[in-house]
Amino acid sequence: MMLNRALRKTLASQQTRSILRQTGLRPVRLIAPSFSTAAQTSSSSLAPPRASSASESTPFVSTPSRKYEYFTNVELTPSGVAVIKFDNPNKKVNTLSFSVMREARTLWDELASDPALKSVVFTSTKDCFIAGADIFDISSVKNKEELVPVIEEALMFFLKMKERGVPMVAAIHGPALGGGLEWALWCDYRICTDSPSTKLGLPEVKLGLLPGFGGTQNLTSLVGVQKAMDMMLTGKDVRHDKAKKIGLVDLVVAPQSLESVAIATAEGLVNGTIKKKQPKKSFMDKMIEDTPPGQYLMWKKIQEMVDKNTGGNYPAPYAIIDCVKYGLSHSSGLDKYKHEREQFAKLAATKESEALIGIFDAMTQQKKNPSKVDPLPVRKVAVMGAGLMGAGIAQVTAEKGYEVLLKDRDDAACGRGITYMTENWEKKLKRKRMTKHQFDINTSRVIPLADGTSSVKRHFASADLVIEAVFENLELKRQIIQQVEEMTPDHCVFATNTSAIPIASIAAPGPEVKRPQNIVGMHYFSPVPSMPLLEIIPHEGTSDEALATAFAVGTKQGKTCIVVKDVPGFYVNRCLGPILVEVSALVKEGVPLETLDKAMKKFGMPVGPITLIDEVGVDVASKVSTFLASADLGKRMGGGDLSLMTNMVEKGWTGRKSKQGFFTYSGKKDKKIGPQVTAYLKEFTGGKVSNMSEVDIQDRIATRLVNEAAKCLEDEIIENPVAGDIGLVFGIGFAPFKGGPFRYLDAVGVGQYVDRMNGFADTLGEQFEPCQLLKDYAASGKKFHG
Ligand SMILES: C/C=C/C(=O)SCCNC(=O)CCNC(=O)[C@H](O)C(C)(C)COP(=O)(O)OP(=O)(O)OC[C@H]1O[C@@H](n2cnc3c(N)ncnc32)[C@H](O)[C@@H]1OP(=O)(O)O
Q1: What is the value of pTM for the model shown?
Q2: What is the pLDDT of residues 535-567, one digit of tens each?
Q3: CB neighbours (10 Å) of residue 282?
Q4: What are the entry keywords (predicted)?
């Protein structure tokens, strides 16, 4: 959410443009990226004096074995700096679990009583500062009211540390998220590294929560309302340069200098050579945040954005707004923190939070490679086909450090692919989501190769993985395999990006295919750079190595991977089939298109089904649904009239791309239902108009989707409900606050769901009959998630 930009736009339109030019867009000076550079400007307060080296430290606790479970032995330097290092044993990241917080209190009590203590540095032994409060501890508390005293204890602990009156420095390398950043916000000085892994953020909103360790208050005082709201309402993290620019950190250094600079800073804060920074606001920010008209506009804009983005379905953003507003009107005393923790506990008890935490858990679980063997080492990836799909795959592959060959039939086709990638990277560069250095490296990693280029064979001779993204044509795909097998080494994995052709047919042994064991399906979603899901489809003969390799590369490309069975539509499109039929049935019954879209947006889908069809293309939706209708889904594809879309394709109404689908598009945002579509629908429906209730529309579409997901689980097309949830949330945007189809079933109650489906089956037909698995769960009262 570009809150700042939006507010500036509003204010600018109110005769403040000149002020904006003079003040609001003034460039902010960035800090030198490493300590060595900072040290050259030694008179600046940004350049701390040389640190007493870590090797001069004397052990504070000189036990031979480790004294604390979650911290390394704390050291006190000769100048009285205590270096406290978070170090969760046997875990990749540090979290603030209940036990860590308990031990932190004990540690502090011991440390604070030492008169030699002059200042403190908090840092970590891992490539992670702190990933936040422990999400699983929060989930494990059944009665969420019990979280209030737990958070109160944490707050008392932070206050107690502050009361000791010694300067505290947070030395951050790697993620400092949620409660981790909140810990740093209690410190007097924050230093972070310029490593790409360093990111600072308050992502609690993504878990349906709010920052409960004082974050809503402390972040707002530090960086101002607009920037704090932007961070807290979107949950997005910021990198070192942005963190410095907005005043979230005071200093940025190279990782190798972090500890010594932090110690030197702590010493400087004690002896007065370094001053604690006071938050500063630009003139424009003061106008917006500190004047009644500015505040009025600011809150109006924030409210509008939250309403638009959440559809009223997510309580957390509203609670965050409430806490910040409360804090601004109760700025002194501890009331504002009390209010914050009470709101936190309320949110933690919501079903939305439970669902969103479920998604986090599922995403984490899906990062684990399910294969029994190690993936093959992959250095070079060849992408066949430089269309939208191929270029997108090449882009995400190059971004993650692989060498990429982008092959197509001629220079023009390769050029289009390269242009697509370059334009995307230029956008990132412009938005400061990528440095010029990264841009240059990425572009240099991709080698375009047109058919017939003399070096093709040489390049392919060292490819470890080939991903094919050409037309959906079985013969063509097999011809490509033949070419590739001739040029590549024996270990090279061949991944086919198909949405419709069975992997088994592509990999069937024959003159074209000699290494079927190396073939696996990798089904990407379009547009590849922004869609988070990847379906990985082994056929019966796929080797464990090939599967493991596809999974590892997909995960490294930033995708959440689910392994699915080789059946028509795989998982996501298979579930989409029954929805498309049901949409055609509802349209045939005379439900207006806008009503359909509105109902499903209210259900929580990011866009309604009519808009979705126009966006993916009426031709694509029509092809998928007719393909699935002729596949093995039987009665589950019944009950509609797919000529709705095939007629449209014949008319050339293919959706947004042709400016004419269900809607007529006249601009980026302008769309309406034109007279030709109204006339067509009149003919299609026989003039019927239905005033079906919103709930009935939602249930008719949702039941068919959810039933198909359950049938996929019954038929072992997906491995478990976790994969089923993540697949539909990330693949088609199934309401994230419902947590996916299986969490949704658990929340509604499978028994009730089955009753609803049976009711529809009685009146509308067998396409609504619940699958056996749903009937079994309804009978036993079992839940999909524990
Ligand atoms: C009042 C305060 C409230 C809060 O603070 S709520 C929590 C807010 N924090 C977050 O939402 C951050 C969540 N975590 C992440 O975004 C990522 O993780 C990281 C960026 C920190 C690291 O990513 P990567 O390097 O890819 O590792 P990985 O596979 O995601 O996680 C490694 C292990 O760490 C566990 N983990 C990560 N964060 C937390 C957490 N906040 N609470 C509990 N566990 C966490 C995972 O589950 C997994 O565990 P396993 O290895 O057993 O699968």
Answers
A1: 0.86
A2: 999 999 999 999 999 999 999 999 999 999 999
A3: 14
A4: Fatty acid metabolism, Lipid metabolism, Lyase, Multifunctional enzyme, NAD, Oxidoreductase
